[in-house]
Amino acid sequence: MSESIPVVAIDPYGADIPDEWARLRAQGPVVPIELPGGIPAWAPTRFSSLRTLILDPRVSKDPRQHWSRYTEVEKHPAWSWIMSWLGVVNMLTAYGTDHSRLRKLVAPSFTARRTEAMRPRVEKITGELLSSMEESAAASGGVVDLRTGLAQPLPMRVICELFGVPDDLRPGLVRLIAAIMDTTNPSPEHAASVQEQIGTVLPALVAHKLAHPGDDMTTELIRVRDEDGDRLGDEELLHTLLLVIGAGFETTVNLIGNAVVTLLDHPEQLAAVRAGEITWDAVIEEVLRVHPSIASLPLRFAAEEITVEGVTIPAGEAILTTYGAAGQDPARYGADAGEFDAARGVDEHLSFGVGVHRCIGAPLARMEARTALPALFARYPELSLAVDRSALRQVPSFIAQGWQEIPLRLVP
Ligand code: HEM
Question: Which residues in 13-36 are b (16+ Cβ under 10 Å) and which e?
Fold first, then answer.
């Protein structure tokens, strides 16, 4: 690792992600860091250095081929948590033709056109959840948690319907994804519990769909596995389901939550949205830029030695992708990059990734947020936070960025 730049341990709690990246940015465009448990990696701190690295074909996502320390993980019990990110075989950890084979099985189901066809269903679920929130609020002194009332169940129900996940398996999935996102406990016991859950919940889903095939994506992926051609291995099937179902809700939960909190923080911008002076689309893109639901993502690897903006990353070393840093980079967005300003008209952000691994669910996430946010604020125009702003707690993660609970008062 570099001798001149001090190695900084990333805060596993993600207590102040923007501040952490601002401090690291001051040290250089790409800096050496340590992930929980002491895993060494490099982190781009600027929009430009992140974009360059993601798009460099010498940067791989396959730890099996390109991480020089992959076989060392077993020697470091405190590193075992990273295996729930790197030990899975799906498009997120694949490189080259393996990646395109795995991606093309799923991506066509999430095009803008296919997503648009889901809009009526998303609107209906949103309406039902808003009514349930009202009932819960009435039963609990007028206060209701946005996360459990709307932000989580909306994307959860949508993705579970798409994949034909039966009701009884859904709570287990929620617990599993929360455990994968929780980076505050790099103990071998936590890692073993996550692996155990992966080995239980996903096989249970596949077994259910084998017994009850339906018009859903799990059934479709099982069929692909059973056919010749672009066969999916057994593990690839389970881990693709884990990725797409997990990414399909956890990220959007925080997009909706972050957007509501940010708008309540900026009543003048909320008023401008209501008056039609700022669009909901602009609000969503600006929330994604300033508070991306995925602040960082483990990991990429330098397949060869790579020099970016004067910093050399040796071959075989790990790279963290740092959307939380890029979105608030003053060199790209100006001195007030950390400020939420939906009227600034940002032309590009990296919060859905870029290049061959860019998010396949971006149209769905945008559509869900575009449905939920106006519906929520139209139905409860006087909605407010029911706790002091400083009482909101970040989810325990440096990867996910969002609030554990968002207590709201729907009517004054
Ligand atoms: C606000 C919501 C979301 C955010 C912020 C987000 C963010 C991201 C990012 C940053 C990547 C790029 C990963 C990389 O370059 O390594 C990505 C990839 C991915 N996302 Fe999303 N995502 C969101 C919603 C969704 C949804 C709704 C789905 C499900 C349909 C989804 C499925 C995926 C998949 C499967 C990939 C992997 C693509 C690949 O490796 O080729 N995401 N997402």
Answer: bbeebbebbbebbebbbbbbbebb
